[in-house]
């Protein structure tokens, strides 16, 4: 195998980026970070039920769920919310080393999600608030299903270093 003449003389893992990292100051309102679509199965729901210890029959008992007005067992709301995790998108790669903390989230569950539904999650930057050595990035978090229905809407806030703190 031939050596690449453009490769650095010494490999540095810190230079092995998926995308070029941006500073807080380089982020822009309106930037969107999408997650890959995911089709949920009964196995996903059962795995989340095991981890969360949420054993309400609405999540696994088809007869109970239908008796109470649902078309099928309902995927756990927190499991749906998890699809808005920043790490499910390119966002953490884009902000690189300036990330300090995920500080806040809110959401509304707008429609039920069932096994077989495909979810499309996205984070859109809606505000950038500098605070001296740090800055707050606020994103709108949305999830649509395969029918185009908005099933979850909310916001996330992240604390990032600014150039003066990097």
From TrEMBL:
- Entry-linked InterPro entries: HotDog_dom_sf (IPR029069), MaoC-like_dom (IPR002539), MCH/BMMD (IPR052342)
Q: Which domain of life is it from?
A: Bacteria
A UniProt-annotated Pfam family: MaoC_dehydratas
Q: In what residue span(s) does the MaoC-like domain sit? A: 29-131
Q: Which SUPFAM superfamilies match?
A: Thioesterase/thiol ester dehydrase-isomerase (SSF54637)
PANTHER family from the UniProt entry = BETA-METHYLMALYL-COA DEHYDRATASE, MONOAMINE OXIDASE-RELATED
Give the protein name, as stated in the record: Acyl dehydratase
Recorded source organism is Mucilaginibacter pocheonensis
């Amino acid at each position: 195998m031939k050596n690449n003449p453009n490769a650095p003389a010494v490999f540095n893992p810190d230079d092995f980026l998926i995308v070029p990292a941006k500073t807080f100051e380089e982020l822009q309102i309106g930037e969107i970070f999408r997650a890959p679509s995911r089709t949920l199965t009964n196995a996903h729901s059962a795995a989340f039920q095991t981890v969360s210890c949420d054993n309400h029959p609405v999540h696994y008992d088809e007869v109970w769920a239908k008796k109470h007005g649902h078309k099928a067992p309902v995927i756990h709301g927190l499991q749906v919310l998890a699809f808005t995790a920043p790490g499910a998108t390119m966002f953490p790669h884009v902000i690189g080393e300036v990330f300090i903390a995920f500080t806040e989230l809110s959401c509304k569950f707008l429609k039920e999600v069932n096994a077989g539904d495909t979810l499309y999650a996205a984070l859109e930057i809606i505000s950038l608030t500098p605070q001296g050595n740090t800055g707050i990035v606020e994103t709108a978090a949305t999830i649509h299903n395969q029918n185009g229905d908005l099933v979850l809407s909310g916001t996330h806030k992240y604390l990032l270093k600014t150039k003066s703190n990097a």
